[in-house]
């Protein structure tokens, strides 16, 4: 992408022109830039540089132990000979302080087993979520078991929410919505150990390592609520519990 010069980009521009002509039906003599603008297609050079910027940013968000992360200093160094192919990208983006990029800590989720509970000054809490699709509707249920500090009486709360029609929602996004909704209810807690149980393994893996899956709005909301809970001294862990295991909370949440 960084080495794509004017001559090399000629065949790509011809493909861009054919695609734009197929979309809007222009004449063959129409300039490629005009056809791209009318068809709302980004120019090839713009798309290449956008990918280059993303790649350069991703390199700087790698952990310090990654060998590719440690090679960025050599990429930026100017040499007359044997210059890095990525030098042009580094030189074009040298005004951006990549070293000060804010990175997001991934939420820790356990998809193997449930750890033993530990007591903390504020108390402990277990919340189970479960989603379902029935009669053309998608919804979720939540069961919360709260153990206040100083051995007070155990509290149990259950509720269910209809999220929307099956044509617009699915059980996977409903599971993420249930997790976000539950965390939003707990933002006022302080110094609690919170275990959130889910029977949806895909949802637990998505929260641990979000990519480009559906339900990104709920994933962003979950991370935002997680930061608020952590600032109040809470410890939150999301656990995947197979449906084959006997779990009272998961049974109440369904």
Automatic annotation (TrEMBL):
Which GO molecular function, any one, fits this protein according to its record?
Answer: nucleic acid binding
Which protein are we looking at?
A: RNase H type-1 domain-containing protein
